[in-house]
Amino acid sequence: MNIKKLLKYTATAVVGSLAVGLLVACSSSSSKDTASKKTTVEVGTVGTTKPFSYEDKDGKLTGYEIEVLREIFKDSDKYEVNFNKTKWASVFSGLDSDRYQIGANNISYSEDRAGKYLYTNPYAKNPTVLVVRKGVNIKSLDDIGGKSTEVVQGTSTAKQLEKYNEEHSANPTTINYTDGTIQQILANLNDGRSDYKIFERITVDTIIKEQGLDNVEVIELPSDQQPYVYPLLASGQEELQTFVNKRIKELYEDGTLEKLSKEFFGGTYLPDAKDIK
């Protein structure tokens, strides 16, 4: 082989090797990028239920549930979390359409929801109370017949009262459905536009204090009315459910849940240890 042919062959081989090397490098880089890409978990929340989910003075979404969920997905190799503010009913329609994989907005347990969605370990305990306008003769749930309240349709309270009316058709309670926030509902109660409201203690105490509602009183309900608070997952998200269950247990055991409970609730409002599996 003469010198010209040898040089030409050598140059061709070098170029070919470089091209192969570049293809391998690009392929390796592409595989790495694909492997490192995380799954975004979309969370639907109303964002007005302080101290569970709300916007701070700078417009940043925060609250006990928001910060717990951030901790759940912190440093995850597989998942990253994104929050979406929406209306209450849209949390569930979003779960139905898989627009959201998690709903988080002070959600308690119900058999209807358990039949459609996936519950995880609970991450808070929020006792239910009866908020009554002063001067109204209501001492317990036995006294709500003939009295009025405001509720958001589809909530556990709405279903509870609808069932009450079926069982007390001779003297039902008046249910006024609303799209208003719990802050607006309690303000209406304080101003005399309704007679009572069934809701969770933590939120009620926070709103009464912040809004200076001095025309209402809070009545404790029996211990069987002590709902836990859960993140609710869309059907088919069993793998995500396993991950969230594990992380809630870890955060419970390492004290993170208690720390956040004290920060946002002003005390320890956690599930019993036996209910964290």
UniProtKB/TrEMBL annotation:
Q: Where is the signal peptide?
A: 1-31
Q: Per the database record, which ranges form the Solute-binding protein family 3/N-terminal domain?
A: 40-268
Q: Which of UniProt's keywords are assigned here?
A: Signal
Question: What Gene3D superfamilies does the database record attribute to this sequence?
Answer: Periplasmic binding protein-like II (3.40.190.10)
Q: Does the keyword Cytoplasm apply?
A: no
**Protein origin, superkingdom:** Bacteria
Secreted: is it a keyword of this entry? no
Kindly give the Pfam families that the UniProt entry links to this protein: SBP_bac_3 (PF00497)
Give the protein name, as stated in the record. Cysteine ABC transporter, substrate-binding protein
Please name the source species.
Answer: Streptococcus sinensis
